[in-house]
Amino acid sequence: MKFHGPAPDNQTTPCTGILLTNLGTPDSASVRDVRDYLREFLSDPRVVEFPRPLWWLVLNGIILRIRPKRSAAAYRKVWTDQGSPLLVISREIAAALQQSLAQRVDGSVKVVLAMRYGSPSIAAGLETLRQANAQRILVLPLYPQYSATTTASTFDEISRVLRQWRWLPELRFINHYHAEPGYIDALAKSVQQFSATHGECDRLLLSFHGIPQSYADQGDPYADQCRITADRLAAALDLPQDRWAFSFQSRVGRQPWLQPYTDKTLQQWGAEGVRRVHVICPGFPADCLETLEEIGEENREYFLSAGGSEYHYIPSLNSTPTHIEALTDLIQRHLWRDA
Ligand SMILES: C=CC1=C(C)c2cc3[nH]c(cc4nc(cc5[nH]c(cc1n2)c(C)c5CCC(=O)O)C(CCC(=O)O)=C4C)c(C)c3C=C
Ligand SMILES: [Fe+2]
Ligand SMILES: [Fe+2]
């Protein structure tokens, strides 16, 4: 085990680190890189709570032989010249936050992006901050709604890395921001601007990533926080009940996940004669495979072939100024008073 020497030896001027984290994404859309990514992701006991020795056999014997091919094909549809959308956009958010915090905060603040799975890793991000002499670190996982599968898993990885440090920085961790007024406001503005340019919709669907229903039954607050975000956003938009709904997407495996399901909802709306639909994914601060491909393409087909006539996906907040301002406010409120 590698034990780092004490940070006070560092001659660099002390700073406060902001460790901005997201889920992570494969290094490329090749089947091999997607398999490596899925192996790390799906081996996390916070993500798949299946008894271990058996899960190892199922994962390596079945899932990693089938899923990587299918997922890689989906990744190829959204991959950009600069790389995976999730990584490219998360980097843009980190850079924009670095700029806006430099203007707002007195002390020296250094923003570093890290991914829970794949690269840039959390270990590398923490090491960068250690070398920058970050005596305090504020962690902001880009998950507005808390879930053990995402938020707590990020915490697990940070504590695993820090277990190997002799000297620990002061730490703060933002658990969730699902009801943060700035975040709700930024979402509402994004919906309004979208309608102003693309026309009004008959119904707005708020689609969140799902988790297994059994995790919620055992106390994961994720579904409740999604409901609160959805209610606040509908209220901010002054939407009557019959003009919107919320649902859960990205189901994996056979056990029941949180319902209603996004695909079923859109098929039902198409069949019922709902004509124009807009879909927004408030739980994804950065566009990624699950928004661009699953919502932007796959679910469009479900709605249109069920009888719908117009379908638009409203992009994530990404690095838009209202999003950066909301995240800057959030960070500033959680920072030490003398930064
Ligand atoms: C199998 C269990 C999974 C759980 C539980 C889960 C929870 C969860 N995920 C996100 C956010 C994202 N997930 C993304 C991709 C993705 N998710 C799973 C599985 C679970 N997610 C898989 C297997 C994949 C990979 C793609 C695929 O094969 O379908 C992504 C996008 C990553 C990218 O590279 O673009 C995000 C973001 C949340 C918020 C969440 C629980 C609340
Ligand atoms: Fe996921
Ligand atoms: Fe998906």
Automatic annotation (TrEMBL):
EC number of this enzyme: 4.98.1.1
Pathway entry: Porphyrin-containing compound metabolism; protoheme biosynthesis; protoheme from protoporphyrin-IX: step 1/1
One record GO biological process: heme biosynthetic process
Enzyme class: lyase
Catalyzed reaction equations: Fe-coproporphyrin III + 2 H(+) = coproporphyrin III + Fe(2+); heme b + 2 H(+) = protoporphyrin IX + Fe(2+)
Residue stretches spanning the membrane: none
Keyword Lyase among UniProt keywords: yes
Keyword set, alphabetical order: Cytoplasm, Heme biosynthesis, Iron, Lyase, Metal-binding, Porphyrin biosynthesis
Annotated Gene Ontology cellular component terms: cytoplasm
A GO molecular-function descriptor: ferrochelatase activity
Subcellular location: Cytoplasm
Binding site for Fe(2+): 209, 290
InterPro entries associated with the record: Ferrochelatase, Ferrochelatase_AS, Ferrochelatase_C, Ferrochelatase_N
Family: Belongs to the ferrochelatase family.
Function of the molecule: Catalyzes the ferrous insertion into protoporphyrin IX.
Official protein name in the record: Ferrochelatase
Source species: Sedimenticola thiotaurini
Upper lineage: Bacteria, Pseudomonadati, Pseudomonadota, Gammaproteobacteria, Chromatiales
